[in-house]
Amino acid sequence: MGGRGADPGAARTVVAVVGIVVAAAAVLSPAAAGGLGKEAAALVAIRAALHDPGQVLRGWDPKSGDPCHWNMVTCYGGHVQELSMTQQNLSGTLSPAIGRLRSLTYLDISFNNLSDDSQVMDKKVIIFGIYIGIGCILLAALVAGAVVLIWQWRRRQRVFAVADDEDPSLTYADFIQHYLLTMIIIP
């Protein structure tokens, strides 16, 4: 038959099989899956904002596969949940891309030279402080209300006991009903 003994049909079959394998690998890769692809992109953005003289982040490359296997990254359930970058001689700022790591529950960036102009961390600390402040105000109001209610109950119990010598007991339910009717509903 022709020249080198190669069958043109077999060559086309090999090319088709290789094409299918490459297409399947592209579709099934973590980057194409969406979740880890977005997390890998966030980690790459974090890396880009940092100066890394020791090259400890050199493996943070979306082409290197699953970010769950990257240095200093821990995943649970297939999502990045921990970044432990302590004592890595990193400098720069923490990228706002860290906010895209939705499952991140632990971040250790201690003993590095990171500047604190990271607006992301500042905003999270401020929001956390606001939540704590609101919680403290609500707790203080609840305690103050309970103290006033108990004080009023004891005061009224004495008043009713003096007014009614035959039945000096006043139940808490009676007090609440009386208190609500006289103090709140009918001012």
Automatic annotation (TrEMBL):
Residues 38-75 form the Leucine-rich repeat-containing N-terminal plant-type domain. One of its GO terms (biological process) is signal transduction. GO terms for cellular component: plasma membrane. The chain crosses the membrane at residues 12-33, 125-151. Pfam families: LRRNT_2. One of its GO terms (molecular function) is transmembrane receptor protein serine/threonine kinase activity. InterPro entries: LRR_dom_sf (IPR032675), LRR_N_plant-typ (IPR013210). Keywords: Leucine-rich repeat, Membrane, Repeat, Signal, Transmembrane, Transmembrane helix. It comes from the Eukaryota. PANTHER family: SOMATIC EMBRYOGENESIS RECEPTOR KINASE 1. This is Leucine-rich repeat-containing N-terminal plant-type domain-containing protein. The lineage of its organism: Eukaryota, Viridiplantae, Streptophyta, Embryophyta, Tracheophyta.
